[in-house]
Amino acid sequence: MNSEASAVKLPECFSSVIPGWFSEISPMWPVWMFLSSTYGKVLVLDGVIQLTERDECAYQEMITHLPLCSIPNPKKVLVIGGGDGGVLREVSRHSSVEKIDICEIDKMVVDVSKQFFPRVAVGFDDPRVTLHIGDGVAFLKAVPEGTYDAVIVDSSDPIGPAQELFEKPFFQSVAKALRPGGVMHSAAFSLPSFARKVIESIDRVCRGARRRRFRIYYYKMYIRAKFSITTPI
Amino acid sequence: MNSEASAVKLPECFSSVIPGWFSEISPMWPVWMFLSSTYGKVLVLDGVIQLTERDECAYQEMITHLPLCSIPNPKKVLVIGGGDGGVLREVSRHSSVEKIDICEIDKMVVDVSKQFFPRVAVGFDDPRVTLHIGDGVAFLKAVPEGTYDAVIVDSSDPIGPAQELFEKPFFQSVAKALRPGGVMHSAAFSLPSFARKVIESIDRVCRGARRRRFRIYYYKMYIRAKFSITTPI
What does UniProt list as catalytic (chains A, B) (predicted)? Predict the structure, then answer.
């Protein structure tokens, strides 16, 4: 991994940035790392903050425990994205879970997390975890029907590489991959304008053939939204 | 409310404090308010930070939605403490809820929140909310059996005025006040050393006469812990 601290000029609004850190251009999208006096190490993908060392737990807990506590005894969990490992760390706290699959599209996110965020990447150490590097949309299409109790989509914004994770075909794949009574939970946006589109997309799936068989929840935590879709019990 | 900014000397570690704000001594305990360049307005009770304007939502959402989403269609909710109104704000997002009682021991917390944290205190505006100023322990003792679907304990540390909220008699009152299948969720500590005592106290209640009728969850979010006790379904 090359250190190229001088290659990227950070916006002036990053007033607490401590100079001397690195940036690196992934083959997929710009990956930045910087050190903030307030939030510790910060990971930026495609210009959007994804992870800050000092407050990451609030996000990881909300996106993980809310769905897993809303169903009894989850056993098989799939994480789409989440390459920093934080969601894995939280999923592994559930003793009922027997198998945790994760499909992350960018291996560099995993590598950066393991190198700079060891308390987050510790999630990969759980023996129940299997890491798949690849496209989450394709991965889900190949999943046999009714495989998972929970699917957690811990992605970047619904633009660029993650766009398909917020469109109808993907949500249909999720519904198929879930067992009856299973739950999906998704990080949805860092810009409020994305929220409506994502809600509408899920809503179209829900209002399709099997109305009343899903539930949607919407939360505002920092600048993200979460949704739960529960397939029929 | 008198402005006495010069009356309290803040610790040097509060390096981001913007001078000129006020402190006020409540009849019950020291209540401080200060303005931080990073976290906005900050409320301190008894020397412990209770609320920061910029990140309060993460705490309020976790302590509220986790229990309310873990049971179907909660209708009657009791909040013990929570005088800033933030938990009320989140509870009110649940359309199934018909009645929200809150019992806060210190009216000054409510007044300070309404004056300085209007986006938090907005929770009091919901017509389903009834505010009771008084001792939560005594309030719960007088509650008829099986009244509430959920009891959320949003208190300060298990020392001083809040100590009784973490002891066996209180948890027994909670269990009695809950309907079968109801849930309790509690903020537990700001110092890790408190956590074990609280867990043990809940555990003693759970392991009492009716083992397997409770579930305990433990989360680390910032410096707090949450527990859920589910009475038999």
Answer: 154 (proton acceptor)
What angle is formed at CA B37 by the lines to CA A55 and CA A11, rounded to 5 degrees?
75
Query: Quick one: pLDDT at residue B163?
Result: 80
Interacting residues of B18 by C-beta distance below 8 A, sequence separation 6+: B34, B35, B36, B37
Give the nearest chain A residue to B62 (CA atoms).
Answer: A62
pTM of the model: 0.79
Q: Is A69 on the interface with B (CB under 8 A)?
A: yes
List of chain B residues whose C-beta atoms are within 8 Å of the C-beta of residue A66: 65-66, 69
B58 in A contact zone (CB under 8 Å): yes
Cβ-contact B137, B170 below 8 angstroms: yes
Give pLDDT tens digits for A69-100.
888 889 999 999 999 999 999 999 898 999 99
User: Does the model's ipTM exceed the 0.85 cut?
Assistant: no
Residue A213, classed as helix, strand or coil, is coil
Our answer to whether residue A154 is catalytic in this structure is yes
Chain B residues in contact with A220 by the CB 8 A cut-off are: 57, 61
